[in-house]
Amino acid sequence: MAKTIAFLALSLLVLTLVQAQHPVSRGRARSRARAFIESQCETTLYSTMCVKYLSPYVASFTKTLSHRQLAQIALKVTLARAESTQAYITEVAQRLNRTKGPESRSVRECLDQINDGVDQLTKCIKEAHHIKEDGGSSSSDFTWHASNVQTWMSTALTDASMCIDGISGRAIGGKMKALIKARVLNLQQVTSIALALFNRFAARFRAAHVVKP
Question: What is the pTM (predicted TM-score) of this model?
Fold first, then answer.
């Protein structure tokens, strides 16, 4: 009886120790992922914003975060910001729908640019999934997919810039102009971050797999 109790006690102790190790392991993985994000964000133009938007995803990683994964996360964050901006400007456009003045026209033109940007970013995410982590893509496949992503992201960045230029150059009320510009400028910055991180991933991929640009 005493041996049985001792065995059960030992088993319980071992189980407790094993369970206690998991949170520590996950915590270390999150710390490494956080440190990786901070180091990669330093290479972007908006490092503080980069860390702010990407660090919430740390908790979902229990292993080392890769450049490819970080680039994909940044793309998804950018699309989410684009869709949020799209929804806001759509609401503004609907409120101005009955007017035919410069405000309505300028907002509609801006919305057209943001709509195109959302389409471009959606294609980027789909295209990025074709790029394999372990170099499984051939040189031609990688070049094709990476080039598409970079081109479409650059187009989305241009779309945001054109919207801001259009809003700035038209007779739009001060508060409305400020709100739209703030949202689109944020989108432009997040897109810039995502493009920088994808370019860094693509450069490392080419170097590791000797892929010619």
Answer: 0.81
